[in-house]
Amino acid sequence: MDLSLSDLGDGLSSESQSEEETCPDKELVAAIMKRRAPPPLITTAVWERYYFANCEIKIKESTEFYGAVVWPSALVLCHFLETNQDKYNLADKNLIEIGAGTGLVSIVTSILGARVLSTDMPEVLGNLRYNLTQNTRDRCRHEPVVKELTWGVDLEENFPRSSTHFHYIMAADVVYSHPFLEELLATFDHLCEDNTVIFWTMRFRFDKENKFVDRFQTLFDLELIYDLPSMKIKLYKAMRRRKVGTETNRVE
Protein backbone atom coordinates (compact mmCIF):
# COMPACT_ATOMS: atom_id res chain seq x y z
CA MET A 1 0.00 0.00 0.00
CA ASP A 2 1.40 3.42 -1.01
CA LEU A 3 1.43 5.68 2.04
CA SER A 4 2.72 8.82 0.30
CA LEU A 5 0.51 11.87 -0.17
CA SER A 6 -1.10 12.49 -3.55
CA ASP A 7 0.29 15.30 -5.73
CA LEU A 8 -2.08 18.26 -5.51
CA GLY A 9 -1.18 20.01 -8.76
CA ASP A 10 -1.80 23.67 -9.68
CA GLY A 11 -5.58 23.77 -9.89
CA LEU A 12 -7.79 26.82 -9.53
CA SER A 13 -7.93 28.53 -6.16
CA SER A 14 -11.47 27.28 -5.59
CA GLU A 15 -10.32 23.71 -6.20
CA SER A 16 -7.36 24.16 -3.85
CA GLN A 17 -9.68 25.52 -1.19
CA SER A 18 -11.96 22.51 -1.64
CA GLU A 19 -9.01 20.16 -1.23
CA GLU A 20 -7.94 21.96 1.94
CA GLU A 21 -11.45 21.60 3.34
CA THR A 22 -11.62 17.88 2.56
CA CYS A 23 -8.08 17.23 3.84
CA PRO A 24 -7.68 19.42 6.95
CA ASP A 25 -4.87 17.24 8.27
CA LYS A 26 -2.72 17.54 5.12
CA GLU A 27 0.23 19.39 6.66
CA LEU A 28 0.42 17.19 9.76
CA VAL A 29 0.16 13.99 7.74
CA ALA A 30 2.89 15.24 5.39
CA ALA A 31 5.16 15.98 8.36
CA ILE A 32 4.56 12.51 9.78
CA MET A 33 5.13 10.66 6.52
CA LYS A 34 8.37 12.55 5.87
CA ARG A 35 9.84 10.51 8.70
CA ARG A 36 9.72 7.43 6.48
CA ALA A 37 12.32 7.00 3.73
CA PRO A 38 12.29 4.23 1.11
CA PRO A 39 15.00 1.57 1.38
CA PRO A 40 17.49 0.99 -1.45
CA LEU A 41 15.98 -0.64 -4.52
CA ILE A 42 18.34 -3.61 -4.23
CA THR A 43 18.29 -5.30 -0.83
CA THR A 44 18.31 -8.84 0.54
CA ALA A 45 16.03 -8.04 3.48
CA VAL A 46 12.61 -6.45 3.93
CA TRP A 47 13.31 -3.31 5.91
CA GLU A 48 12.33 0.34 6.14
CA ARG A 49 14.14 3.51 7.23
CA TYR A 50 12.69 6.13 9.56
CA TYR A 51 14.01 9.33 11.12
CA PHE A 52 13.05 10.17 14.68
CA ALA A 53 14.86 11.82 17.59
CA ASN A 54 17.74 12.83 15.30
CA CYS A 55 18.47 9.19 14.50
CA GLU A 56 18.15 6.98 11.47
CA ILE A 57 16.17 3.90 12.45
CA LYS A 58 16.26 0.79 10.28
CA ILE A 59 13.39 -1.61 10.84
CA LYS A 60 13.49 -5.18 9.62
CA GLU A 61 10.02 -6.34 8.69
CA SER A 62 8.48 -9.72 8.06
CA THR A 63 5.53 -10.56 5.85
CA GLU A 64 4.74 -13.68 7.88
CA PHE A 65 3.01 -11.93 10.79
CA TYR A 66 0.64 -8.98 11.06
CA GLY A 67 2.68 -7.66 13.97
CA ALA A 68 5.97 -7.69 12.05
CA VAL A 69 5.10 -4.78 9.77
CA VAL A 70 5.31 -1.06 10.60
CA TRP A 71 1.81 0.40 10.38
CA PRO A 72 1.13 4.14 9.96
CA SER A 73 -0.33 4.39 13.48
CA ALA A 74 3.17 3.82 14.89
CA LEU A 75 4.53 6.76 12.90
CA VAL A 76 1.75 8.98 14.22
CA LEU A 77 2.56 8.05 17.80
CA CYS A 78 6.33 8.47 17.36
CA HIS A 79 5.88 11.89 15.75
CA PHE A 80 3.67 13.04 18.60
CA LEU A 81 6.07 11.86 21.30
CA GLU A 82 9.10 13.46 19.68
CA THR A 83 7.40 16.80 19.03
CA ASN A 84 5.82 17.04 22.50
CA GLN A 85 8.80 16.29 24.74
CA ASP A 86 8.29 19.56 26.61
CA LYS A 87 4.87 18.36 27.76
CA TYR A 88 5.56 14.62 28.03
CA ASN A 89 9.16 14.14 29.09
CA LEU A 90 9.90 10.41 28.91
CA ALA A 91 13.37 10.62 30.43
CA ASP A 92 13.78 7.97 33.17
CA LYS A 93 10.07 7.11 33.05
CA ASN A 94 8.88 3.50 33.23
CA LEU A 95 7.10 2.68 29.98
CA ILE A 96 5.54 -0.43 28.49
CA GLU A 97 4.52 -0.91 24.89
CA ILE A 98 1.88 -3.56 24.22
CA GLY A 99 1.69 -5.09 20.76
CA ALA A 100 5.12 -3.65 19.96
CA GLY A 101 5.41 -5.46 16.62
CA THR A 102 8.58 -4.34 14.86
CA GLY A 103 9.50 -2.12 17.80
CA LEU A 104 9.51 1.35 16.22
CA VAL A 105 7.66 2.99 19.12
CA SER A 106 9.82 1.16 21.68
CA ILE A 107 12.96 2.29 19.86
CA VAL A 108 11.93 5.93 19.69
CA THR A 109 10.82 6.07 23.33
CA SER A 110 14.09 4.41 24.37
CA ILE A 111 16.08 7.04 22.47
CA LEU A 112 13.96 9.70 24.19
CA GLY A 113 15.20 8.38 27.54
CA ALA A 114 12.48 6.06 28.84
CA ARG A 115 12.97 2.74 30.62
CA VAL A 116 11.14 0.64 28.05
CA LEU A 117 9.55 -2.78 28.37
CA SER A 118 8.61 -3.89 24.86
CA THR A 119 6.04 -6.69 24.66
CA ASP A 120 4.27 -8.81 22.10
CA MET A 121 3.31 -12.36 21.17
CA PRO A 122 6.04 -15.06 21.16
CA GLU A 123 6.21 -15.41 17.38
CA VAL A 124 7.34 -11.80 16.81
CA LEU A 125 9.79 -11.44 19.71
CA GLY A 126 12.83 -12.53 17.71
CA ASN A 127 12.40 -9.81 15.10
CA LEU A 128 11.38 -7.30 17.79
CA ARG A 129 14.51 -8.00 19.82
CA TYR A 130 16.70 -7.73 16.71
CA ASN A 131 15.30 -4.31 15.79
CA LEU A 132 15.65 -2.95 19.32
CA THR A 133 19.22 -4.16 19.63
CA GLN A 134 20.30 -2.79 16.26
CA ASN A 135 18.73 0.63 16.78
CA THR A 136 19.27 1.41 20.47
CA ARG A 137 22.86 0.27 21.09
CA ASP A 138 24.94 3.25 22.30
CA ARG A 139 21.94 5.54 21.81
CA CYS A 140 19.99 5.07 25.05
CA ARG A 141 20.56 5.67 28.72
CA HIS A 142 18.40 2.62 29.49
CA GLU A 143 18.59 -0.60 27.48
CA PRO A 144 15.07 -1.66 26.43
CA VAL A 145 13.80 -5.03 27.61
CA VAL A 146 11.75 -7.43 25.49
CA LYS A 147 9.16 -9.65 27.15
CA GLU A 148 6.33 -11.89 26.04
CA LEU A 149 2.84 -10.61 26.74
CA THR A 150 -0.22 -12.48 25.55
CA TRP A 151 -3.19 -10.23 26.23
CA GLY A 152 -5.29 -11.33 29.16
CA VAL A 153 -3.11 -14.36 30.00
CA ASP A 154 -1.32 -14.76 33.36
CA LEU A 155 -1.22 -11.01 33.87
CA GLU A 156 -0.78 -11.05 37.64
CA GLU A 157 1.82 -13.81 37.46
CA ASN A 158 3.94 -12.08 34.81
CA PHE A 159 3.20 -8.46 35.71
CA PRO A 160 2.35 -8.39 39.44
CA ARG A 161 0.61 -5.19 40.44
CA SER A 162 2.61 -4.97 43.66
CA SER A 163 5.89 -4.52 41.79
CA THR A 164 4.90 -3.40 38.28
CA HIS A 165 4.52 0.34 37.93
CA PHE A 166 4.37 2.21 34.64
CA HIS A 167 4.26 5.94 34.04
CA TYR A 168 3.24 5.37 30.42
CA ILE A 169 1.57 2.69 28.31
CA MET A 170 2.01 2.86 24.54
CA ALA A 171 -0.21 1.09 22.04
CA ALA A 172 -0.18 1.56 18.26
CA ASP A 173 -2.81 -0.16 16.11
CA VAL A 174 -3.66 -2.89 18.60
CA VAL A 175 -7.36 -2.77 17.77
CA TYR A 176 -8.19 -4.54 14.51
CA SER A 177 -10.05 -7.61 13.33
CA HIS A 178 -9.00 -10.09 16.00
CA PRO A 179 -11.04 -11.99 18.62
CA PHE A 180 -9.10 -10.74 21.65
CA LEU A 181 -10.55 -7.29 22.27
CA GLU A 182 -11.84 -8.17 25.74
CA GLU A 183 -8.43 -9.60 26.63
CA LEU A 184 -6.82 -6.41 25.35
CA LEU A 185 -9.09 -4.33 27.56
CA ALA A 186 -8.25 -6.53 30.55
CA THR A 187 -4.56 -5.99 29.83
CA PHE A 188 -4.94 -2.21 29.78
CA ASP A 189 -6.88 -2.44 33.03
CA HIS A 190 -4.26 -4.59 34.75
CA LEU A 191 -1.24 -2.52 33.72
CA CYS A 192 -2.73 0.92 34.34
CA GLU A 193 -2.51 2.61 37.74
CA ASP A 194 -4.34 5.79 38.75
CA ASN A 195 -1.58 8.06 37.41
CA THR A 196 -0.54 6.01 34.40
CA VAL A 197 -0.91 7.78 31.03
CA ILE A 198 -1.91 5.73 28.00
CA PHE A 199 -1.12 6.90 24.48
CA TRP A 200 -3.03 4.87 21.94
CA THR A 201 -3.25 5.28 18.16
CA MET A 202 -6.05 3.53 16.34
CA ARG A 203 -6.97 3.16 12.71
CA PHE A 204 -10.73 3.01 12.32
CA ARG A 205 -11.81 0.16 10.05
CA PHE A 206 -14.99 -1.74 11.01
CA ASP A 207 -17.81 -1.32 13.51
CA LYS A 208 -16.62 -4.17 15.72
CA GLU A 209 -13.29 -2.49 16.32
CA ASN A 210 -14.85 0.96 16.57
CA LYS A 211 -17.14 -0.22 19.38
CA PHE A 212 -14.05 -1.03 21.40
CA VAL A 213 -13.71 2.68 22.07
CA ASP A 214 -17.05 2.60 23.93
CA ARG A 215 -15.93 -0.40 25.98
CA PHE A 216 -12.62 1.31 26.69
CA GLN A 217 -14.41 4.35 28.08
CA THR A 218 -16.14 2.29 30.74
CA LEU A 219 -12.74 2.09 32.45
CA PHE A 220 -10.77 5.08 31.19
CA ASP A 221 -11.18 8.80 30.56
CA LEU A 222 -10.30 9.43 26.94
CA GLU A 223 -8.94 12.59 25.32
CA LEU A 224 -8.60 12.97 21.56
CA ILE A 225 -5.16 14.37 20.68
CA TYR A 226 -4.97 13.92 16.90
CA ASP A 227 -7.70 13.23 14.38
CA LEU A 228 -6.26 12.39 10.97
CA PRO A 229 -9.23 11.60 8.71
CA SER A 230 -7.13 11.10 5.58
CA MET A 231 -5.31 8.27 7.38
CA LYS A 232 -8.43 7.14 9.31
CA ILE A 233 -6.25 7.33 12.43
CA LYS A 234 -6.91 8.90 15.82
CA LEU A 235 -4.46 9.40 18.67
CA TYR A 236 -5.88 9.22 22.17
CA LYS A 237 -4.56 10.00 25.60
CA ALA A 238 -6.23 8.02 28.38
CA MET A 239 -6.08 7.65 32.15
CA ARG A 240 -7.97 5.47 34.56
CA ARG A 241 -11.52 6.72 34.91
CA ARG A 242 -12.35 8.94 37.85
CA LYS A 243 -14.37 7.51 40.69
CA VAL A 244 -18.16 7.51 40.56
CA GLY A 245 -19.56 10.94 41.21
CA THR A 246 -16.93 12.89 39.30
CA GLU A 247 -17.41 14.31 35.84
CA THR A 248 -16.16 12.29 32.85
CA ASN A 249 -15.90 13.21 29.20
CA ARG A 250 -16.75 10.78 26.44
CA VAL A 251 -14.88 10.96 23.16
CA GLU A 252 -16.44 10.12 19.82
TrEMBL record:
| UniProt biased composition (Low complexity) | 1-16
| InterPro entries documented for this protein | Methyltransf_16, SAM-dependent_MTases_sf
Q: Does the keyword Cell inner membrane apply?
A: no
Q: Where is this region: Disordered?
A: 1-23
- GO biological process terms on file: methylation
CDD domains reported in the protein's UniProt record = AdoMet_MTases
List the transmembrane segments. none
A molecular function annotated in GO for this UniProt entry is: methyltransferase activity
Q: Which Pfam families match?
A: Methyltransf_16
Q: Does the keyword S-adenosyl-L-methionine apply?
A: yes
Keywords for this protein: Methyltransferase, S-adenosyl-L-methionine, Transferase
The record, for PANTHER family, names:
HEPATOCELLULAR CARCINOMA-ASSOCIATED ANTIGEN (PTHR14614), METHYLTRANSFERASE-LIKE PROTEIN 21E PSEUDOGENE-RELATED (PTHR14614:SF1)
- Protein's UniProt name: Methyltransferase like 21e
Q: Which organism is it from?
A: Acipenser oxyrinchus oxyrinchus
